[in-house]
Amino acid sequence: MVSVGDDAPDFTAPLTDIDGDIESFTLSENLDDAPLVLAFFPAAFTGTCTTEMCTFRDQMANFEDVGATVYGISIDTPFTLTEFAERNGLNFGLISDTNRELVDAYDVAMDFASLGVNRVAKRAVFVVDGDGEITYAWVSDDPGVEPDYEAVEAAAGKLEEPSEAA
């Protein structure tokens, strides 16, 4: 599993931006916008996932205050994510991982065997700094558990503090 101190696995995937446009997104090409908050969620239009993404939406000012850029990531298609973002007024980009390359690279895949759905994202949050390093990692094996949003914000905020001279 990807841990604090590891290099964030680089990727290129479709991104639905806040205007509903779909474009290509490469993590390594967006490190200037760091800290980056990568919020993996199992599926659009499900109860806890909608609550989680709407909580990030509602707390976006807090993330902007610490200079963080938030992205939601799921295995849904870009078109599904566009509709999900529109219906919920999301104010951050959503990354589509239909090929499940990101859930594999970040080792956050899980199965809903009872529903016949394989390799969806576990609920997980990673904060990536401007050097591409993971500075915060939280992964839940229980899809009904939401992240500690204040801890995510605090982790992203730590990256904005000037480093002290030794």
UniProtKB/TrEMBL annotation:
InterPro entries named among the record's database cross-references: AhpC/TSA, Peroxiredoxin_AhpC-typ, Thioredoxin-like_sf, Thioredoxin_domain, Tpx_Peroxidase_subfamily
Single Gene Ontology MF annotation: antioxidant activity
Thioredoxin domain residues: 2-161
Superkingdom classification of source: Archaea
Oxidoreductase found in the keyword field: yes
Pfam families noted in UniProt: AhpC-TSA
Residue numbers annotated as active site: C49
Keywords attached to this entry: Oxidoreductase, Redox-active center
Protein name: Putative peroxiredoxin/MT2597
Organism lineage string: Archaea, Methanobacteriati, Methanobacteriota, Stenosarchaea group, Halobacteria
